[in-house]
Amino acid sequence: MLQFIGHRTVLLLPVVMILLSGTIPPSQTAGRFTHTVTAGESVSLICIDYYGYYSEALGKIVLADNPSIKNIDLIRVGQQLSMRKPVDTTVQDTVTAVAKTDTPAASVAPIVRKMSVSQGVVTCVEGTVHWRRAESAHRQPLKINTVVTPGNVIETGADGRVEIVINREAVVRLHENTKTTLEAFRDAAAGKGKTRLKCPVGGWWTRVKKFKDRISRFELELPTAVAGVHGTIYETSVTGDGASEVRVFTGEVAVRSAGGGAPPSPAGAGATGVPVEVGGPQEVPPPHEVSMEQWTEIVRSMQKISIDKKGIPSKPELFEKAENDWERWNEKRDLRIARLFGE
Length: 343
What we know:
Elements: E1 2-5, E2 8-11, H1 15-20, H2 26-29, E3 32-36, H3 43-51, H4 56-65, E4 80-84, E5 86-87, H5 94-99, E6 111-112, E7 120-126, E8 129-132, E9 140-141, E10 147-148, E11 153-156, E12 161-166, E13 170-174, E14 179-184, E15 195-208, E16 218-221, E17 225-238, E18 244-257, E19 296-300, E20 303-307, E21 317-318, H6 325-341
Parallel strand pairs: 5-6, 15-16
Antiparallel strand pairs: 1-2, 3-4, 7-10, 7-12, 8-9, 8-11, 11-14, 12-13, 13-15, 14-15, 15-17, 16-17, 17-18, 18-19, 18-20, 20-21
């Protein structure tokens, strides 16, 4: 549109053209949605929430779709991320295909949602944290958005804390001055096995997703005991001499001696937790002495148990919340994890 002002001719662009000049072409916004970053989130945590897992290739896609992100390990609260809408399908891994091509179709391709991936992902790191592979003596700084695997050893310094999401069904956080070996991850796709962490010294906060059955999918191997859990929030600590303590905030933990075998099934339940018919009276063998090496204690909400360096447990007893910085930090982060677990 032309407008004459005095002796000059001025070209005025329509407002609608000015607005459109700053928008993203429709071909690039189709199949997208916007995520606003909240406190405590990382790119890996956001991806696990929407897509079920995280990978380096997936991180590259988020970077490519969001030029405002200069460092994938640094995102700001309130920042808006353009995310691709996930699809539920069994076709080949779209993420891998997108990462290896620069075709126009790849720029808007959806990402396949995979909810049964066995992996550990570092979703938060604070302070000094190092890690190494089992076959290597070389330690290196552990960064956020790192995918970890069984055999990896993780150590936090005097100011270090780290959060690891495992199989999208368990979260474990390491306190300061803590050492942990990732022993095994449960086969999520086949629904077999258990996730196991060896915990020689330090402190841990664990939250495990609730399932319909009561089968333990997660275990912490302490120096003289094993803590098997399901649908539970609990804290564990081990001192330098091997003595340990388990505090349960929600749910229950079956704590047993390290060589005591599997914990008993719930009363009146079969191996799968389903009630079974109980047979008639049978002859019971005479009492026999049980060594101190074989014991199991069920620790319930707001109870704690201590195991000394010789492996002798106390009886479960009530405790009061400490309300310290460690507990407050975990409870705050658990609010986001509850959304991830749909709880």
